[in-house]
Amino acid sequence: MPNRSDIQTRAARLRMGFEAAGGRVVDPPLLQPAGTLLGLYGEDIRARAYVTIDALRGEQMLRPDFTVPVVQMHMRDGAEPARYTYSGEVFRRQEIDADRANEYVQVGYEVFDRDNPAAADAEVFALFALQVRDLKLRAATGDIGILMAAVQGLNTSARRKAALMRHIWRPKRFRALLDRYAHRVSVPAPREALLSTDGVLTGSSVEIGKRSRAEIDERIEALREDAALPPIAEKELLALEALMAVRETVPYALEQMRDIAVDLPSISQALNSFEARAAALAARGVDVESLDFEVSYGRTSMEYYDGFVFGFYAETRPDLPPIASGGRYDALTRQLGQGAEIPAVGGVLRPDLMLMLEETQS
């Protein structure tokens, strides 16, 4: 394992490369307000972060990543367009895999620019490809925005679409919801019994649990309304399943998705953006003819991304996380911008993993 001094030296060199591309150096505090992160990710973040209590500042978390504080900083007082770079420690609890580091250095680059999102995507990807060019890595790309557009275009209720959007990053739950909304599975007996009652608290003066009688009755009514809806059409469902299965090089993936768009026309604009990005990547010297693309890429690990996503992997070391990864997170700027928003894209590098691979590949 590389020593700390070598990691810091490599991190400084990588950051200098991003500075040369126009990134302004920023250094967010190690302690971050827990409320912001809990608001974004829910209580699940507690299983992955180190949490402490400060008498004056309340609940705090050791920095689990840089993107959220950089977005907050930019939305508060950043000029436009803007480019930032940083390097420093992040902290992630590891309760399952003891071999995974719980503290490591990230080096990152973030672009806030509303003029040409496709060009910004290409800029970030090309810069990261340049930083890892001496390693034998496989580049993977995806686009969460295409899947989001498909869900938003489904001919079903707003409540169902909102539920699917919430669980895009949880493939098993997403699939279970699709099967339920398509009436591919039978209604579980407990839910069927619940729907047939006038209300679970009817005739009882005791309320058990944290939800009030009104909240429970409201939930039951929502379930009844959903049960009365027609299923998602099989044609739409098959098209969505075909879309999620697309895994090809960029040109062939685009061709397949254009065919699928005949039955899912809501993805057409997202595919136009995909095509513009491919052209911008090619203009920066990226070999898009052999660049891998997968619609479902990033769905289990990139929760705040909502567009282009990418990662660089060592195929000879499948046990390692991505050496570099990133993507577009426009919605995050909207969530943290208190009404303001700006298209944004960025990524991070792991200098420790780069040094480790150099030792084994040399």
TrEMBL record:
Keyword Repressor in annotation: no
Keyword set, alphabetical order: Glycosyltransferase, Transferase
SUPFAM superfamilies named among the record's database cross-references: Class II aaRS and biotin synthetases
Gene3D superfamilies named in the record: Bira Bifunctional Protein, Domain 2
Domain Aminoacyl-transfer RNA synthetases class-II family profile: 18-351
A matching Pfam family: tRNA-synt_His
Source taxon at top rank: Bacteria
One Gene Ontology MF term: glycosyltransferase activity
Complex and partners: Homodimer.
Name listed for the protein in its UniProt record: Histidine--tRNA ligase
Native species: Parasedimentitalea denitrificans
